[in-house]
Structure formats: structure tokens, C-alpha cells
Amino acid sequence: MIVVENLVKTYPGAGRAGEVTALRGVSLQIPDGEIYGIVGPSGSGKSTLLRCLNLLEKPTSGRILLGEDDLSTLSGAQLRAARRRIGTVFQQFNLLHSRTVLRNVEFPLEVAGVGKQQRRTRALELLDLVGLSGKEETFPSQLSGGQQQRVGIARALAAEPEVLLCDEATSALDPDTTDQVLDLVAEVNRRLGVTVVVITHELGVLRRICTSAARLDAGRVVETGRIVDLVADP
Ligand code: ADP
Ligand code: ADP
């Protein structure tokens, strides 16, 4: 279970701009194994919540619990270890263009100090899972957008995270490719049992793979529930 408790995030104002409160007391509970959507208009706080969840941003107040562990109190080596429990898939893929596909997937394991043989074995398994066997020695620029995002998914899974966070992960893809990538995320959820959190502004994305969702507006959760109730066709 991921528990978000009364999360507040205020950014200090730059220059003459005043401070901005992006999250105004967000509380959520995401059960293990779920594909959970976070939806809301631009500026509602989705990215801020995501960066708090993947521990790239420190909340101003409130807590994030992953299983038994309170992630909001960590720093240093503990924080770095906790970050490996959460894998992120980015809108713009964020691949390293000077590295092959295989070495992109190995990268998080390299940073974590995993030995060469072990990380190679893991990366090859993941490339097979995402349907990219045979592309190991290819460079990202030689792949289609959908294939690049498959590499992004494999890389996010490399360190065996408990949670896969998808940050507008299909916004840069055409509709058919979007469906294929979403179906892959659903398959990863089934096969690996990883909890998936999907940040999106698109209801179609929610409808295709999420079981439940929360709707954010102006830094607050305004609605939570099962997808069928939230985005029912009128
Ligand atoms: P969304 O992802 O839903 O578009 P964001 O979390 O990006 O929402 O933004 C929520 C609010 O916080 C917006 O008003 C945005 O301008 C502000 N904001 C986001 N990131 C920063 C930042 N690094 N510094 C200052 N303000 C920010
Ligand atoms: P390190 O020792 O690895 O440099 P720090 O504790 O200095 O780690 O934090 C590095 C980054 O992580 C900073 O950008 C900070 O905002 C963010 N951060 C620190 N503590 C937390 C936390 N408890 N939750 C989320 N983000 C955090």
C-alpha cells in the first residue's frame, strides 16, 4: 500500500513572484498491485505529486508511506535506496542517446553498484519482457517512439521496484502506439505484480488500464473512486 497523508508542497517564489502552493493537503491510498490513475487539468499538481512520490522533491509537510516505511523522513543513503523502490517512466523517455538500448536498461543497476554479469542478465530479461529482443545493441535514435518508451519501461523496472510511476508516459505517442504501450504496462502489472501509478490528463488512458483513480484540481483531491464511476460515458 502507498499512503499519501496530507501532503503539502509550497515552492518559494522567485524574484517578485510570490510562493506557489502546488499541493494543499493531498491524501490518497493506493493498494498493492493496483493500476491507479491520477488525473487533473494542467497546473492541478500532478507533476508535483509525482516528484514527491519518486522522491525527487521534498514535501513541505505531510507523509508518504510505502509499505511500513515513512519515506518522508529519509535522507542520504537511505533516500537513495528508497528511490530504487520506485521506477519512473517519463513523457520524453529520457534515454541516454550515447548508450545502446542494453546499456540504457543496465544504467540504474550500474549506478546501484550491481555487477556486470548480473545487470546484463536482468537487462536482457527485461528487454525480452518489453518485446525488444534483438534491439540490444541499437541506439535509441534508431528506434520509434513506442520502442523508445519500451526501453524506458524496461529501465524503470531494472532495480525491481515495487512501484512503477508513469508520468504522461504516452503523451508523446500516436493513438495506436499509446494503446500498445498501455497494454504493455498492464501486462507488466500482471506479470511482475508491481503497483502502477499513472499520471495523465487523458481520460482515454485511464479508461484503458486503470482500475481506480484520483482527480486533482488546484492542489486538492476532488474525487476518488473506481474508473467506471469516475469516467462513465454520459
Ligand atoms: P500539473 O502537473 O498538474 O500541470 P504541476 O505540479 O506542474 O501541475 O504544477 C502545480 C502548480 O505548481 C502550478 O501552479 C505550477 O506553476 C507550480 N509549480 C510546479 N513546479 C514548480 C516549481 N519547480 N517552482 C515553482 N512553481 C512550480
Ligand atoms: P543526498 O544525500 O543523496 O544528496 P539529500 O537528502 O541531500 O540526498 O536530498 C537529495 C534530493 O532529494 C534533494 O533534491 C531533496 O529535495 C530531495 N529529498 C530529500 N529528502 C527527501 C524526502 N524525505 N522526500 C523526498 N525528497 C527528498
- Total DSSP helices: 8
N to C succession of SSEs:
EEEHEEHEHHHEHEHEEH
Helix and strand content put the structural class at: alpha/beta
Largest sheet: 6 strands, mixed
Shape: globular
Keywords: ATP-binding, Nucleotide-binding
Protein name: Methionine ABC transporter ATP-binding protein
Can you describe what's shown?
- Helix 4 crosses helix 5.
- The chain contains eight helices and ten strands.
- It is of the alpha/beta class and 234 residues long.
- It is globular, with a radius of gyration of 18 Å.
- The strands form two sheets. Strands 6-7-8-3-9-10 form a six-stranded mixed beta sheet, with helices on both faces.
- The chain is 35% helix and 26% strand.
- The longest helix is centred in the last third of the chain and has 18 residues.
- The protein binds adenosine-5'-diphosphate (2 copies).
